[in-house]
Amino acid sequence: MMFTILRMITPVTRLALLSATFCTLVGVAAQETAHGAGHTGMNSKMHTDMKKMMDDMHAVKSSGNMDVDFAKMMIPHHQGAIDMAQMELNHGTDPMLKKMATEIIAAQKKEIKVLQDWLTKNDKSGRAR
User: Fold this and answer.
1) Buried b / exposed e along 32-68 (16+ C-beta atoms within 10 A)
2) What confidence category does residue 128 fall into, taking pLDDT thresholds of 50, 70 and 90?
3) If DSSP states are collapsed to H, E and C, what string results for 16-75?
4) pLDDT digits (tens, 9 = 90+) for 17-45
5) Gap between the Cα atoms of 14 and 7, Å rounded
6) Is this model's pTM higher than 0.70 or not?
């Protein structure tokens, strides 16, 4: 059902929702760490992976071309989803979530390939990710 709903909204809205979700999660993680809660085990790994994703997205230098910047930022964003889904496959127990994780990995890998191919053809800055 979630994937059906996501297909009904525009890609820009979908990106905004996903980005807001990740930013919220990273903000909560930072707040918990600042209050001394910290993270252990798989929770720590997931937060580390999310921080890496955010750092990689922020490391993209603006090219002045919205399309190029969007494609470059979506690659680490999708890789972050793959990393989190892989953790669910490795350590999760719920069959529905494990199935969803498998679908997420397949879909995100395809989209990364499409973005990389698009950048190869369209990024004139020579700084393709």
Assistant:
1) eeeeeeeeeeeeebbbebbeebbebbeebeeeeeeeb
2) very low
3) HHHHHHHHHHHHHHHHHHHCCCCCCHHHHHHHHHHHHHHHHHHCCCCCCCHHHHHHHHHH
4) 566 566 555 555 555 544 445 555 667 76
5) 9
6) no
